[in-house]
Amino acid sequence: MIITRPREWERITDGLNSIDAGSVFIMGCGQCATVANTGGEKEVIEMKAALEQAGYVVSGWAVGEVTCHLGGTKLESRKHHGEIDDADAVLVLACGAGVQTVADSVSKPVFPGLESLFLGNVMRHGVFEERCQMCGDCVLDLTAGICPVTTCPKGLLNGPCGGMWNGMCEVLQDRECTHVRIQRRLKEQGRNNTAMLPPKDFSTKLKPGNVNLRKKRGGDRP
Ligand code: SF4
Ligand code: SF4
Question: Which pTM does this prediction carry?
């Protein structure tokens, strides 16, 4: 899921004030931002109260089921078109993908209410860790299911680096070195742990990503 955190209040109000917005519609997200406690119904209602306390009129609010889903967000926006028409701006409590989907769905100026941080694993309720940077050329088959690109702070494919000390990471000193973990797990699985990984082909990570399952196979690029 996409991990987000609340945007600084001053940045939100500076944005709204930059267009003299007196009235605001708030859109949250029923998926990742709800799980991250940043853009679910509770946080949307808290944002409504904070905006009203600061003197803004909140014309309405909604929590889209999956705000980065264009069709669903267009439908949600149509359901609330009167409240959105009454607003000078739409504040979106969702990741950057969700903000852009709302911007594609409404004609009003759209402002982000969250900062998008990373693709995160949910370790337990309220605890998230970045495990994958979606590089498009996965090496987990060779690294015993531990991603060196993401979990080594230096992104080293082969390690440990010279700073590893007693098995611990030089950068994140409270964590075991990723490459120590990889080597141990490979050994535990009885696998060859001496092979060097070749340089990664980062051309597979073309931006913006684009996959169209409606096209015939072979016509897409990742
Ligand atoms: S190697 Fe790439 S795709 Fe695989 S987990 Fe790491 S960042 Fe993600
Ligand atoms: S100690 Fe290990 S995990 Fe930390 S930066 Fe060096 S190679 Fe990466």
Answer: 0.90
